[in-house]
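User: Quick one: structure for sequence A, then sequence B.

Assistant: Sequence A:
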Amino acid sequence: MRQEEIVNEIRKKCGDVESFPSMGWHFIYNKRHYFYMTRKDEQTMRFCIPHLVKASEYNEMLLSEAINDTNRNVKFIKAVLLRCGSVSLDYDHKITSEESADILVPHIINTLDFASDYLLSKLKRI
């Protein structure tokens, strides 16, 4: 699976895709900002929502509980509290020759979208 195929599938699902040299591609889906990160290792890829919420807007213990719950209950996703104070959602995937971008890319975007709704719903209950 080539990078060009991945970016084309993002375009099909999300529309505009903006290149950030040496970082990857930025796009918007359901009003959230996403990144497809380029890697020197072409065997893995990362999609992420780099800033879902600001940690300072939530009680630290309750935010940690919501992040841990998301990590336990949503497959493939890693919710992370970054040093800058943002909560990020990451989807890392090891690419195999049997996979195709037209199936994988929409799955990853949909999974991140689901995970973001899941985490936000947990935070609303707090």
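Sequence B:
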Amino acid sequence: MLKNALLSVGLLLAGITPCPADDLSGPGHWTIKKAPWGSIFYDPVAAGNHGMEANGDDVLIKSGHGMVKVLGSDVNGYRLVAGNDVLTIKLVNSDIEIRWREKVWTLRGQNGNYTLASNAPRDTVVFERNANTFTVKGSAGFLRVTSGPGILSIDSSAGQATVKTDPGNRAFSGVPMDRLPYLGRGVFISFHGVGVLLDLARLFPMEEVAEWREWKPIIGQPFDPSQP
């Protein structure tokens, strides 16, 4: 408690206002940068003894992983730098491109619908909404959710499910929610103890299934602060 309090004071003096355990980056994660497409964050517990300092828009993090620089802004995009290793986040109109080594993630939006292309893992996922139905489809299958008065109908490549809600009652039947493809939060990228969240759930809200979505990745792996 004392260490976290001292750290928070130090961050405030440095001009950084972290958001602990917020709804931006996940439970236990502190948001370094909030962006329209998601956030840049880290896990203060996993980081161990560490320090942060700010210089304008730039943030420097020193921990047992070494030193990571978070450079840039929403307007000009971001660069995460750890030694000679660089991750870039570029924004072109409504498109977002994240590059790290040979890995590329691209998100394109049009009229509230999105296409996520990734080579880590290799997939192209399309998010579409029409009236009371939304659909997510890619190489792992499809998920279609339709809401109506007192009922939520789910059709997917894993099977069908139904949630009926009446005052004081709720009945669930069909395939378990944890088997549904693409039911998650977004894309998590681990970079030398710092995380990047491409937050599809914020860009393409899926309130109908929010309680089952949790903080699982839509594709790829969860954030792992131990990964280089």
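The longest strand covers residues 122-130. Helices lie at 2-13, 44-47, 200-203, 210-213.

User: Thanks, that's what I needed.
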